[in-house]
Write a structure and sequence with these properties.
10-stranded antiparallel beta sheet; TIM Barrel; Beta-galactosidase, Chain A, domain 5; 14 helices; alpha+beta; 3 domains; 713 residues
């Protein structure tokens, strides 16, 4: 440890170590964040908190959230540690006398888990207003290895193509500029951002850095249902990471802090793993390396600790939804009744009537907002359909898109103009809808009345909460900036959801946003499951389902399985396998299937139900590596101490054989069972205990898929 360091502050627990360096003449910096002992002797230089204000800007000109003038001046002013309810907390107080700003970094970590949640509270202690342009929720150096040894992980995501993860050398995005010879930090940056309210509409709000030599990995997520930014780049002492919510540069966000006022950033989380010298991380052939998978396991455990308690968590009922490749938003009594009977016979426990149940005219997109059942679609009332659902012992569900009001809806005129997001005094319209502003009491009261009526009068126990528009930068009504108005609405939306669940504690809420366009842990800490895509092509869905457990908990990942009577037995098994290893989300015209097809579907449902108890304690692995969109072979593993369950998909064009890497089973004899479809042939396997590799061969034509159970002997 360098002699000029005055103090180090150590915090953590059995699963996590954090060390801060404190010096009177430098900003506080995070020296170590790891799952093991201190391994970073170098003095870190990245300030712990970065605050961008227009009167000071950056200490060195760039487009980074690193080296801000205020961040470089913030000095240590004290710290408190505490623990309660299974969580450990550290609060670090910082002060910039020149700007009249205090900052408090708040770190929280669940006991025994190698992950930490971070947020920052900035307070104006001066006598004049201070405009904020950006505040980081977390900033630190990823120290200990040259940038040349690091990979960056990120995921592109869009409608129909969600969670497309990529792992690339950081040097492909951050050039080697010979910084040491110039004696200055770099100015370039690799940054990803979102915009508007589709938090995962361009990228999943996550990222990571991994040392490919040792496997040491940081994975992070930004827990916000609106705009965000994360960046990484090179400083003289190596790579740094900065995570934030909305900023002025990216999202038209600024906040004016009056004297005495405070602003708190959106929370973020960082999961960490140690590597092992000699563990080459990801060698580019198969698998992702034990260091990466340990970080995934830590993030998975952290997410489980973050979830709101709910009866759905241990139950995980199978949901049948009538939309995907089935009724497609055109439900009627006559269409629904035989489908309900077939879904119940297949083993579904929730039946959700999707879009269209409120439509009398056939063109409902821009008229939604009152959410009254249609009289033309259900001539004897929607109650007849709901009674058929409950008569089978299933929970009735409805599709709802609460945050929008169609431009032709009567509610567009019944609610005050201030109850909608606005720009320049004009209500925002997008794709024929206005967007409610949930800061306004009239907007919240309308939605509360809708939900309470449907739950209390119709007995609805499940809502698919969809979200199909993005209002852009936000609202400038009663806000310092459009981005500030949007952030306040985002937070009001979360508070509204919590109020709904407080009033109806058994109500199950599905998070859907044009598939998975708002897949973040601001929403998913509160809601029970996440639709992972709107992808209707059963051949294209597997890479989404295989990647999903990196973005969302396996038990929350609602992967569609939509078998059809026109499919072959192998095609039915293929789409069923897509749903079985997550939160099975069933659809399809089951009522038109023959007995053999119905049995194949029911067998898949029963297998899923048999493994549900293991889902909330499993951790994912990728024996063929993170999936590529066009990969011919795909594989996902869910591990517990007793069993590893593998989903394996062979798509058209694939070779007959694939070799899966399972290093956690190396050196052990293993029983391999084809669990689904159990009666089908055409697949064989060979286990090599010395290498920990499983060779699988499929002689039946693609598409074909299987679920395998591997148990150590």
């Amino acid at each position: 440890m360098p002699a000029d360091i005055v103090e180090t502050l150590r915090w953590g627990h059995a699963g996590l170590t954090a060390i801060l360096e404190i010096h009177p003449d430098r900003p506080v910096a995070l020296r170590e964040l790891s799952a093991g002992p201190d391994r970073t002797p170098a003095r870190p230089s990245q300030p712990l908190v970065e605050v961008l204000v227009p009167g000071e800007g950056r200490a060195r000109a760039s487009q980074r959230l690193s080296e801000t003038a205020v961040g470089c001046r913030l000095r240590y002013a004290g710290a408190e540690q505490s623990s309660a309810g299974g969580w450990h907390e550290l609060r670090v107080r910082l002060r910039d006398e020149a700007a009249g700003l205090d900052a408090e970094m708040i770190l929280r970590s669940p006991d025994g888990v190698a992950a930490v949640q971070a947020r920052v509270r900035v307070t104006n202690t001066g006598d004049r207003p201070v405009p904020l342009l950006a505040v980081t929720s977390f900033a630190a150096g990823f120290l200990g290895r040259p940038v040349n040894d690091l990979d960056v992980l990120y995921a592109d995501s869009e409608w129909l193509g969600e969670s497309r993860w990529t792992r690339r050398p950081l040097r492909e995005h951050v050039a080697d500029l010979g910084l040491a010879g110039h004696g200055q930090h770099g100015k370039g940056v690799f940054a990803l951002t979102s915009s508007g309210t589709w938090s995962s509409g361009r990228h999943v709000p996550m990222g990571g850095l991994s040392d490919r030599r040792t496997g040491r990995t940081w994975l992070w997520q930004i827990e916000h249902n609106g705009p965000w930014r994360w960046e990484t780049g090179e400083r003289l002492d190596g790579a740094y990471v900065a995570l934030s919510g909305p900023t002025d540069l990216d999202h038209q966000w600024s906040e004016l802090l009056a004297p005495g006022e405070s602003f708190t950033t959106v929370p973020v989380a960082i999961a960490v793993s140690e590597g092992d010298e000699g563990d080459e991380g990801n060698d580019g052939d198969a698998g992702e390396g034990p260091g990466f998978e340990r970080a995934v396991a830590a993030l998975t455990a952290y997410r489980r600790a973050l979830l709101r308690p709910h009866p759905d968590r241990p139950a995980l009922p199978v949901v049948f939804n009538d939309y995907m490749n089935t009724l497609m938003g055109d439900p009627t009594t006559d269409k629904l009744l035989p489908l309900i009977d077939a879904a119940a016979a297949a083993g579904a426990q929730v039946f959700c009537v999707d879009a269209g149940w409120y439509d009398d005219g056939g063109d409902w997109w821009d008229s939604v907002g009152e959410w009254q059942p249609s009289q033309t679609r259900f001539p004897r009332g929607l109650e007849e359909v709901l009674a058929r659902i409950t008569g089978h012992g299933m929970t009735p569900g409805l599709w709802l898109e609460p945050e929008v009001i169609g431009v032709r809806s009567p509610m567009a005129d019944k609610l005050p103009a201030e109850a909608f997001l606005q720009r320049g005094g004009v209500r925002i319209a997008e794709h024929g809808r206005h967007h409610l502003d949930l800061r306004h009491p009239a907007a919240r009261a309308h939605l509360d009345q809708v939900v309470d009526r449907l739950v209390e009068e119709l007995g609805i126990g499940y809502f698919k909460l969809d979200y199909n528009i993005d209002p852009g930068p936000g609202t400038d009504l009663d806000a310092a900036s459009a981005g500030a108005g949007l952030l306040a609405h985002n937070r009001a939306h979360l508070a509204w959801l919590e109020g709904v669940l407080d009033r109806h504690p058994r109500l199950v809420l599905e998070n859907c946003g044009s598939g998975a366009m708002r897949m973040d842990y601001a929403m998913l800490a509160r809601l029970q499951l996440q639709s992972t895509s709107d992808q209707q092509d059963f051949l294209r869905y597997p890479p989404i389902a295989v990647a999903a457990p990196l973005s969302v908990l396996p038990e929350q990942a609602a992967n569609w399985a939509y078998p059809q009577p026109e499919m072959t037995a192998e095609e039915i098994a293929f789409t069923m396998c897509t749903g079985i290893l997550g939160r099975l989300y069933l659809s399809g015209n089951l009522h038109r299937m023959d007995d053999a097809q119905r049995t194949l579907v029911s067998d898949g449902v029963r297998l899923h139900q048999s493994l549900r108890l293991d889902l909330p304690r499993s951790t994912p692995c990728w024996p063929l590596g993170l999936p590529g969109w066009e990969d011919p072979w795909l594989a996902l593993g869910l591990r517990t101490e007793q069993v590893t369950r593998l989903g394996i998909w062979r798509r058209p064009g694939a070779a007959d054989t694939a070799v899966l890497e399972l290093p956690h089973l190396a050196g052990r004899d293993v029983s391999v069972e084809i669990a689904y479809p159990a009666a089908a042939g055409g697949w064989s396997h060979e286990w090599n205990p010395r290498t920990g590799k499983l060779a699988v061969t499929a002689t039946v034509p693609a598409p074909t898929a299987r679920i395998l159970h591997l148990r150590p002997l």
